[in-house]
Design a protein that fits this description.
The protein is of the alpha+beta class. The chain has helices at about 5-20, 50-60, 115-125, 160-165, and strands at about 25-35, 40-50, 65-75, 80-95, 100-105, 110-115, 125-135, 145-150, 180. Helix content is about 25%, strand content about 45%. It is elongated, with a radius of gyration of 20 Å.
């Protein structure tokens, strides 16, 4: 059986589509726990970068990732009320001199380096004991939920790359919201 030119073009198009659609972020799991008067978050997030984002990092362009966290009061007859928004930002860049990937938590300033991109993405995807909300901000009789998502921050890309990112799906990387009910 031989493939003609049209069949090969369709196969290449489908292969390109499947590779492009493989990129994205996914919150695998997330839980909160009360310790003292503070709720802490533990989560696992998979960061799968597009070929364009990988090329940008390997070319020395730093990428910024945001972990958006919201505590919402559940209301029956109206939209849920946002009680405590929180954003954790991480910058990932490649250091050509040391040939290592540097991951910096922009909220705390903490910085670590990794020998591979996948090790850096794995470390960024492990959220351990992140303080989210103090119990004093919550009404005892109300119901609450927490939701989180991961996003590639296109606004922090260098100017020329922002224009390219506007037209390219390779830089529109974000997870769906992952939510659960907060138990007191």
């Amino acid at each position: 059986m031989t493939l003609n030119g049209k069949a090969i073009a369709v196969l290449l198009l489908l292969l390109g589509w499947s590779l492009a659609s493989a990129a994205g972020f996914e919150v695998r799991n997330a839980v909160s726990r009360l310790d003292g008067n503070v709720y802490f978050l533990n989560a696992t997030i998979d960061y799968e970068l597009s070929p364009q984002a990988i090329e940008a990092i390997n070319s020395g362009v730093p990428l910024t990732f945001d972990l958006e966290i919201e505590v919402l009061r559940i209301r029956r007859w109206w939209f849920d009320a946002q009680i405590a928004p929180l954003k954790q930002s991480f910058e990932l860049k490649f250091n050509a001199l040391s040939k290592r990937y540097v991951l910096q938590n922009l909220n705390s300033g903490q910085q670590e380096s990794y020998s591979t991109l996948y090790a850096a993405l794995g470390a960024m995807g492990r959220i351990v004991e992140l303080p989210v909300v103090d119990i004093s901000l919550l009404d005892p009789g109300a119901r609450y939920k927490i939701r989180i998502r991961a996003v590639l921050d296109q606004q922090r890309l260098p100017g020329p790359l922002q224009m390219l990112a506007f037209w390219s799906d390779g830089y529109r990387l974000e997870s769906d919201w992952f939510s659960w009910t907060l138990n007191e």
